[in-house]
Structure formats: structure tokens, C-alpha cells
Amino acid sequence: MKIVTGNDLKTGEVTWWTGSEWSTNVNDAADVGADAATVIATEEAARRVVAAYAIDATSENGAVRPAHIKDRIRALGPTVRLDLSLDPSATPDQVL
Amino acid sequence: MYQYDSYDQAMVDARVAEFRDQTRRRIEGTLSEDKFRPLRLQNGLYLQLHAYMLRVAVPYGTLSGAQMRMLGDIADKYDRGYGHFTTRQNIQYNWIKLEDAPDILADLATVEMHAIQTSGNCIRNISSDQYAGAAADEVVDPRPYAELLRQWSSFHPEFLALPRKFKIAVIASATDRAAMRLHDIGLRMVKNDAGEIGAEFYVGGGMGRTPMIAPLINAFVPVDQLITYSEACLRVYNRYGRRDNKYKARIKILVHELGLDEYRRQVEEEFAHLQTLAIEPPLAELERIKGFFADPAWETGLSDEIDLSNADFARWVAANTVAHKAPGYAIVNISLKPIDKNGKAGIPGDATADQIRIMADLGREFSLDELRVTHAQNIVLAHVKKADLFALWQRLVEADLATANLDQITDIIACPGLDYCSLANARSIPVAQKIAERFAAPAKADAIGELKLKISGCINACGHHHAGHIGILGVDRKGTENYQLLLGGCEGADTSLGTITGPGFDENGIVDAVEKATNVYLANKEGEERFLDTYRRIGMAPFKEAIYG
Description:
Chain B: Keywords: 4Fe-4S, Heme, Iron, Iron-sulfur, Metal-binding, Oxidoreductase. Chain B: InterPro entries: NIR_SIR_4Fe-4S, NiRdtase/SiRdtase_haem-b_fer, Nit/Sulf_reduc_fer-like_dom_sf, NO2/SO3_Rdtase_4Fe4S_dom, NO2/SO3_Rdtase_4Fe4S_sf. Chain B: Residues 119-273, 408-547 form the Nitrite/sulphite reductase 4Fe-4S domain. The complex is a heterodimer. Chain A contains two helices and five strands, in the order βββαββα. Chain A is an alpha+beta fold. Chain A has one domain. Chain A has a five-stranded antiparallel β-sheet. Chain B is built from 17 helices and 20 strands. In chain B, helix 1 runs antiparallel to helix 2, helix 13 crosses helix 15 (507-524) and helix 15 (507-524) packs across helix 17 (541-548). Chain B is globular, with a radius of gyration of 23 Å. The A-B interface holds A 7, 9-14, 44, 47, 50-51, 67-70, 73-74, 77-81, 84, 92, 96 and B 26-27, 29, 33, 47, 49-52, 80, 94-99, 347, 418-420, 422, 424, 427, 429-430, 433, 479-481.
């Protein structure tokens, strides 16, 4: 699947496009198919997101997994400060 | 230490107001990201992997207690309760909101701090020797010259759009504690046969994807020509640096491609021209600056005796304190590479808001209200009475800041790596932690002695891996983290660049490879040889055999 991610303009938080809005939870990310460029252009113009880009990902049992480790770390948080992540019970192995 | 005059303060305050307006316009939509990005970068505000990151300048690494306290308060008020001290003697905050950035800069301005020129293709924060003003081996205190260069380079209209970023270091000792020759320009203050002070100019060093050791281009530039000569060096670079190729845009490439003699010839030609324009600031300004760095009135009659009956304290004194030029005083290093009682390692360079404030208090109480940030991501209290060392150490123990490992294998420089940095290819911090934990037992680290290990998460080399006795470079191999091992780098007076041992390793494999390398050293060391000395004597072959055999 193709998903779109970026950072919230005001807060800088990592966000994922759900199809209608932005979520900080990667599992909310929607498959945008071939529409990534349109989503990015529209949302950046509306200043809801900055530095948006499309990535490859897979989805299984409701869990969305970005293809590249860099985006998996973006989705979770620093592997060395999981106490600050969206899922403090996660382990670094989950993003590797 | 230097204190702002009305011009300094007015410039910083004006920049805060300007950036506040730019940020407002960005949020309101009258400024596009394309236009805003270079403006926020000029104020040290990056967009990193997880959020905005703010890099705050610490000129030549020197801070007052009040400034350090403010850094702790900012970590609490605007970030997530911690900061990261960097290899440029700066501090970075990882979780900044754009809408808060102008307020942070305003808070910084109240203590004479800012984030100006901590990013972009300009002259960056000038670094120096963390023991300046305290080291027994320095010719002069290098900081007045660094401050003069800071004033010259701040908002210098000709050098705000260089081909690439530009880093300057100033030292004044034979022992190089600032990786001076791995800078775009390195100055070593020296005294000539006539007893006059001047500077050796080394130009064209750097790390990154093409590491180079800066060659000496002028063995003695008098102090009344420092700025003019620096301007000449920059002008030649600004005129001919490779703007067509980002990867060939640093001055080291220009010096290399022109050749040292031709680059020097052009600098001398430009220097002769600039001398006719009389751009050098009056020496009175340098003397004014020197006044801020004059030696304090050292207390006399202090004892050099230290009660070392507490074994843990004795080990800390041996590892983390350094001789001071004044009798009865010591230089104290606070390691930001903690290892707790269970052998668990912390994050290199990180300190909590509370720890930052505690260090500020300790600087005020024990070190003439002054602290230093080191390029090795530690903190220095430069002027501590030996009679106060035990009391200071007890306070550090309470704050989990008393790890005794300066310059040992667990005192690892590590960039933020893929855990935080959008440029990184691999994580640095977990590797540093695993290595530190492998060597956490004091006896094990003590047996190895001085071993500077440095880790970068990408070829940009923010973790100085080229200059590590052992260096580690993280790379992306088909979407998987892979770590290359380098041996033989050194940042000191005998600067050298590390050599890659061979194929890379995974995260656990690189830890094993480091241990094998240290085993080769321990098996082959002669006398008081350090790891680096043994490597230089026996060469790469025995290490490769042990690591790959």
C-alpha cells in the first residue's frame, strides 16, 4: 500500500494521512493509491502538514508497517526513548 | 567570560523579533515553506525525524551558570525534559513546536544566548579548547580570539551564503583538544621567537564523506592581522568554492583541487589587497574582549592534597580530573556517558532538565560560575579547588553524573543517528549503549585505558568516526542497518584518519568486533602504549585477522 506521512506544521508531530484528516497513529494511515501527489499538494497548501511524502507500507490485522526502518522509527519514536513514544510498551525489535 | 554590550544584545533581540514575525507569517500562510525553511534554519530550527529540532549556540563551549540553568528550564518548558549536547559544543532540543520557537529564542536572549548561525551555509559556532584558561600547557587563553572571530563572523554579509557550511576552531596548546585540524579553518595561537602572539592557520580540514586533515598554510599570522587573514581565506573560498556540487562544496575540496601552494598564493594575494582596506578591528577591541577572560584571582596557599580513601572517589579523581595551571585547583570533567550500578548505559550527550540545572548550580558553587561543553559531549567545571572535589563528587553521585570514564572506551561520542536524525542511515545510540555495557565493568575499561570510540549514523560524520581510535560508521545496506569499523583515527596533535577494517557488521556483530580489536591491543601492548599507539606500531593486519579470521 501507499501511505502519506509528514509533520504537523505547528507542532512538528509526525502525522499520517487517514483519507480525511491527519493522525499521529500510523495504524490509521489509509492507502492513497495513486493519489499521493494530490493529497500532499492539497494538505501542504492548507498548512495542515509540512514536508509530506509518500511511502510504501504493508497492513496486517490492522497494523500498518512502513517499508523502511526510517519510517518505522518515525511511526513509533526514538528506539532509545520508548518512554516518549506512542507505545511505551513497544520494544526496539518492533521497528527493526 | 564575555558579556554582551548593547550592540550584541540589540542584534540578538532584533533577530528574535524578526523570527517571531516570520513564524507568524508562516503559520498564517503568507510565507511558504520554501521561503520559510532557510529563515528557520538561520535560527537553528530544523525539521527532524520526529519534530522540529532547535540547535542553540554555545560560543566556544563556554557557559555561565545562569545560561546553563536557562538551558535546563527550556528543556522543561518547551521540550520533553532533556537536551542533547553536541560535538559542536552546542545543545539541541528534539521536540520543539514551531509556534514556541520565537518564545524560546526570546528566553535565550535574556541570558545572552541565541541559535543564530547554528545551521546554513555560513560560519558556524566557533569551537575551542574546553580547558581554555585553565590548562597548564596553553600559550594564551584562546577564547578572546574565538570571541573576536565570533563577532566578525556574526551576520557578516559577505559570508552568509557560502558554498557550504564553515567551521572554525581556535586552540592555544600543543595538545589539541578541539579536533582543530578537522575544521575548515583551525587556528592555533602560538608565541614566536620574539615572544609575540600569533596564529598558525590550518585550512581545509573536515570530516564528512571526504575526510581531510587541514594543512598548515601560514605558520604565523600576527594577532593584529587575524581577521584580515581569515577574511582572505574565506574570500578565496567564497569566490571559487564548488557551488555546483553540494558534495564538493566544502573548502577542503577547493584546497585539495587547487593545491596547497596555489590556494596559499591566492590567499596571500587577497590578504595584500585587504590590508589596503584596513578592515582589521582595532587592537583595543581585542584588549576589551581579553578583559572578560582575565584570570580570576586564584586563591593562594591551597593544598594539593586530596583524601583518596574512598575508592570510588579516588577512581573518579583519577579518571575525570585534569591538572589545572593554578596550584590547589583541578579541572573536572562531568561525563554525560553514564553507566548505572547495574551496568546500563545512558545516551551519550543527553542530560535531563534537572541534571542541567544541577550542573549549573555546581558551576556556580564550585567553578567560578562557569561551565564548558566539550566536543566529546561532556561538561567541564574548569576551576575547582581540590579541597572541594569530594563534596562536588558527592553531589554528582546524587545526580547520576559521576561516571568515571573520561576518554575511556565507554566515553563514546555518538551522533543522534537514525533515532532522531532525518539524514541518518543507521542508529548510533543503541550501538554506543551496547558497547558501553559490554565494557561497563571499571576494571575492564581501566585495563584498556585511553580509547576514544566515536560513532556516526551516516557519512556526514557528526559523530567524528574518522577521528576515533575506533570509529564506527552506520550505513544502510538494502534497508538494513550495517556498521563499518575503522581503526587508527585521532583528533589530537598527531591527527590521523581511521581506516576501514573490511566488511561491516550488524548491531551485535559490531560490538563483538570492537571487543576483538581491544583483545588484540591487550595482547600486543608494550609498556604504557595506548590502543592507538599499539595500532600504529603493529598495523591493521593482526586486527583484521582477529576480527574476520
